[in-house]
Write a structure and sequence with these properties.
Shape: flat
Structural class: mainly alpha
Order of helices and strands: HHH
Low-confidence stretches: none
Largest sheet: none
Distance between the termini: 34 Å
Radius of gyration: 13 Å
Number of helices: 3
Length: 53
């Protein structure tokens, strides 16, 4: 499963526990690795976080 897909599910509000229950071939460790990989890939990129309203 692509890292972007995992992050998308988590960003939509799904918990890690819900995610691994829904996609039972993915482990909690897989999700944590995906998050760590994304962190490393974004390390030198600055993206301001804006709030609506």
């Amino acid at each position: 499963m692509p890292v972007a897909s995992i992050l998308g599910y988590l960003a939509s509000g799904m918990t890690i526990e819900e995610f691994v229950s829904e996609f039972n071939w993915v482990t909690r460790e897989d999700v944590l690795e995906a998050m760590a990989f994304a962190s490393v890939m974004m390390q030198d990129n600055f993206m301001p976080i804006t709030t609506s309203g």
